[in-house]
Specification:
- 45% of the residues lie in helices and 18% in strands.
- The protein is of the alpha+beta class.
- Helix 1 crosses helix 21 (461-484) and helix 15 (322-334) crosses helix 18 (383-398).
- It starts with 9 loop residues before the first helix and ends with a helix.
Length: 912
């Protein structure tokens, strides 16, 4: 890798852009000219279920003039720095959404993907232009990079494609700084944009760029060690200047991730995780890595029939075309024969070994993934180097007429083995054919490379150039197009999606509620429109449902230990109120005040019919009147956790506040005693389940244990006469199955509670049942399995759930979610709990005096409130945001000053 004069050509870059655009027209024709949008409902459903909804909430807040750094429309509320606020491409998308409306966002996404593919190819072309390489080699390498496996697969997640554009620009700047100073400010600017766009990708890029710089400094000839150290420090300082310019995003995102996000929670120390990660992956990982070197579609594709190590997205992606595979073998077989010094050869072998370790050992992925856990998202770091190797080997073969026959034979055997095997077992339409096309085009390119160097038959070089380019074009477009073909996408003419999401009766119902209730409240639905859990972001209302993979750890604890009925789709990242609509008391605790439904018979204790709007029925949860709840009894969180399984949780939480830090003198004065706690013990209703009427022909009953073999469902008869004794009844059991499945629990065949149960992992299930319930049906949705119900019990309580009605707590609906104002009137000293996520950044002011905030009920904020009337203000300021602004401003001032100084210096030099 020897640097040469800058040989970049606008003509070549223009031709490359046109070729990439031509390929994109073929690959994305159904998205550009057909009925598809770049929003997926299959294995790529994060695009539909999460990302598009996040973009909607940003656009909605901007359009309504309500944008702030906190968003109550996303679950219980989120710090907006947890979204992709500052991705450069997405910022343009947000602007388009503001101008033309959020309902058009889905239609724009494919154009942004094409733009990134083109820019990625151009970026790597200019990076390759830092070396003595032919225009033809750089053209083909740029085309391969533009459609790399990472761009094509992970790029479907929108912001993931951005890093593929900027990382080669970072390498370009590093190369330029090795030969001159004028690009150092550009290096700082690129680093600043990367860090400003994403802390996650910024970390990977800077780490990868730093390692790259060290290798290149070792290779650099004609410089003393001292000069190289100065270069390293100088480039490091300018990269840090870029980090400083991006601090406005870096600081608050880092504070969020390391402060309250559950994503970085770990049960082991960093050193222990690193030691454990110095190990091999399971063998299936290496099989998938090899397949993904040859194609992104060798183990089926983007649907659920994928047979790779992990899943279609999260497996490591290494594909750059079959031509790259051929050239990679050439490179590995000829490093020792390069016309360069020993130091260059050793560093290249070291680089190959390091890349192999980063791919082949778990520690590579854990280091690049922020030391949290193994995740193969770092392969984009190797792609520019793959492009460099490709261009180098093309020049060696075409210009120098040197071809390693052993390497060519090895690559050909690899193609025959991988593509041949894939052709025999891939059954899904199009995949076997693609394997055949890849094999034929690969062998064709191998023959053309051989024709370049053989002397017996003279084929005009122009013909060979054209044939190689055409076969490469076919090879890449065939594999790339298959990633987007026959996908489950949101259709442009899908009226049920767009109308139900953006122009339905839900909007009218929300407008009605706003006209009659000026307070802050939460609304939820027992049906879905645009997504499983994030309709509120598109339809602009406060709810509790969400899909959040960086969920606030305290809210995650609340849901896990208090309200697990919110879990949906078999994982801990999806919260769906539809699954917990029967929990009116816990809904009240979280101030879910209104429920929208499409049924006119929502029979849940506490829900009162309010109004019919279009096809929507509005119900009022009469158990809540405010975001805040007043308590005069407290309990230590540790004690609650230890005794939770013995307690009537709903009843206790309506009267007792669970605090994580009850050591102060005030808290100790209102702490519940052991005697008082007995009031909240569970009370069994032994006669509620009519065990004598259970059909024993389909299951076995032994005490509180029920075992069913090879059954679709289990029916549990309910003794109606016993209901008259109780105000409320709760049914609980533990379910174990021998096959992972969704289980749907219904009462009287009309109230549905869905839960995912994993094989041989006992699942505790609990839900409220209504007095008119005649039977409880436990239905297995994924075929017949063997199921065992243990700890089957019903609990009955003679008192209804009621929160303190003497206190008056009111909050007006805010213009911006980062500041709530209201009033509190309480009859005695106590604690007020607000159903706002406990997270750094929140402050509470009572009559202008800042209060100490405590964590309550695992996930919410609480503060002491003396008797009397008070004005209250609750404010959110993103942690370290102000510090980030200051650092970014200082860094930008330094950058601009240096830029002006350089311009003046250059102008003075020219004038002289």
């Amino acid at each position: 890798m020897v640097q040469g004069k800058n040989t970049s050509s606008f003509k070549t870059a223009g031709i490359l852009s046109l070729i990439i655009l031509g390929a994109c027209l073929l690959v994305f024709q159904s998205y550009l000219f057909g009925n598809e949008t770049f929003v997926f409902g299959d294995i790529g459903s994060d695009t539909k279920q999460q990302y598009l909804m996040q973009y909607n909430t940003i656009v909605n807040h901007l359009r309504n003039g309500s944008f702030s750094l906190w968003d109550f429309n996303n679950g219980f509320g989120v710090n907006m720095f947890g979204l992709n606020l500052t991705d450069p491409f997405l910022m343009v998308l947000y602007l388009l959404g503001v101008v033309f409306g959020p309902e058009h966002l889905a239609s724009y996404l494919v154009y942004f993907q094409i733009l990134k593919i083109v820019l990625a190819g151009i970026a790597v072309y200019y990076y390759l232009s830092c070396f003595s390489l032919s225009e033809y080699g750089k053209l083909l390498a740029g085309f391969m990079y533009a459609f790399s496996g990472f761009m094509v697969v992970w790029g479907q997640h929108y912001q993931f494609a951005t890093v593929v554009v900027f990382f080669p620009l970072l390498l370009f700047c590093l190369e330029k700084t090795l030969v001159g100073k004028k690009y150092k400010l550009l290096l700082a600017a690129v680093c600043g944009i990367i860090v400003f766009g994403s802390l996650y990708w910024g970390y990977m890029c800077l780490l990868g760029g730093g390692i790259y710089l060290c290798f290149r400094l070792v290779q650099l000839n004609g410089r003393k060690i001292k000069e190289k150290i100065v270069l390293l420090i100088s480039d490091g300082c300018f990269m840090l200047l870029g980090v400083g310019m991006g601090a406005i995003n870096l600081f608050p995102v880092a504070a969020l991730l390391f402060g309250t996000s559950a994503r970085l929670d770990a049960t082991t120390s960093l050193s222990q995780r690193l030691l454990e990660s110095v190990s091999l992956w399971p063998k299936d990982y290496y099989k998938t890595a090899i397949y993904n070197l040859f194609s992104s579609n060798m183990q089926s594709g983007s649907t659920y029939s994928y047979s790779g190590f992990s899943n279609y997205y999260e497996d490591i992606h290494l594909f750059m075309s079959t031509l790259f595979v051929i050239l990679l073998f050439q490179y590995l077989f000829t490093i020792h024969r390069q016309n360069t010094n020993k130091k260059h050869k050793i560093t290249q072998y070291a680089a190959v070994a390091l890349i192999a370790l980063c791919i082949g050992l778990k520690c590579g992925s854990i280091v690049f993934n922020g030391f949290s856990y193994e995740f193969s998202r770092h392969s984009f770091l190797f792609m520019p180097l793959f492009a460099l190797v490709s261009a180098m080997m093309l020049d060696r073969i075409i210009q120098e007429k040197k071809l390693n026959i052993l390497g060519l034979a090895a690559a050909s055997l690899g193609m025959l083995a991988v593509y041949g095997k894939a052709y025999t077992y891939l059954g899904e339409a199009g995949y076997a054919e693609n394997a055949f096309y890849m094999l034929v085009s690969g062998i064709g390119m191998a023959v053309i490379l051989w024709l370049f160097v053989q002397k017996k038959w003279k084929v005009p070089s122009g013909n060979l150039y054209l044939m190689l380019a055409v076969l490469l074009f076919f090879n890449i477009t065939s594999d790339t197009a298959l990633n987007y073909r026959n996908r489950d996408t949101v259709k442009k003419d899908d009226a049920s999606y767009f109308e139900d999401t953006y122009h339905s009766s839900v909007g009218e119902a929300l407008a009605y509620l706003k006209s009659i209730d000026p307070s802050f409240y939460r609304v939820e639905k027992d049906f879905v429109s645009a997504s499983h859990s994030m309709d509120s972001l598109a339809q602009y209302y406060h709810g509790v449902s969400t899909y959040n993979s960086t969920q606030n750890g305290n809210i995650a604890a609340f849901v896990d230990r208090v309200w697990p009925q919110l879990y949906s789709l078999g994982d801990i990242n999806h919260y769906q109120f539809k699954n917990a609509v029967h929990d009116s008391s816990l809904a009240a605790l979280c101030d879910v005040k209104y429920i929208l439904t499409k049924t006119n018979d929502l029979k849940v204790d506490g829900y009162q019919f309010l109004r019919e709007v279009g096809d929507i029925y509005i119900y009022r949860n009469e158990k809540t009147s405010s975001l805040g709840k007043f308590f005069t009894k407290t309990m230590e969180e540790q004690e609650f956790t230890a005794k939770r399984s013995q307690l009537d949780v709903e009843g206790l939480l309506s009267e007792v506040l669970v605090l994580d830090d009850p050591d102060s003198e005030f808290d100790s004065g209102i702490r519940i005693s052991d005697g008082q706690l007995k009031k909240y013990n569970k009370k069994k209703a032994a006669d509620l389940i009519d065990y004598d009427k259970i059909d024993t022909s389909v299951c076995q009953v032994s005490g509180s244990e029920i075992t069913a073999y090879d059954q679709h469902f289990i029916n549990l008869p309910v003794n109606q006469t016993s209901f008259g004794k109780y105000q409320r009844v709760r049914f609980e059991f533990t379910l174990t199955v021998d096959f992972p499945t969704y289980v749907e629990i219904t009462t009287n065949d009309d109230r549905h509670y869905k839960v995912y149960v994993r094989k041989d992992e006992p699942k505790d299930i609990a839900f409220n049942i209504l007095p008119e319930t005649e039977k409880i049906t436990i239905q297995i949705n994924e075929g017949k399995v063997n199921a065992k119900l243990t700890n089957v019990a019903a609990y009955g309580y003679k008192d209804a759930i009621a929160y303190n009605e003497e206190a008056k707590i009111e909050f007006t609906d805010p213009i911006r979610d980062s500041m709530l104002t209201g009033s509190i009137e309480v009859p005695e000293d106590g604690m007020v709990m607000l159903a706002i996520p406990f997270e750094k950044g929140w402050s509470v002011y009572l009559d202008g005096i800042k209060q100490e905030i405590k964590r309550a009920d695992y996930g919410f904020i609480a503060f002491q409130t003396p008797a009397g009337s008070h004005e209250v203000k609750v404010v959110f300021e993103a942690p370290f945001f102000k510090a980030g602004v200051i650092v970014s401003m200082i860094s930008c001032i330094i950058f601009i000053s240096m830029l002006i100084w350089n311009i003046r210096k250059r102008s003075g030099r020219y004038a002289h």
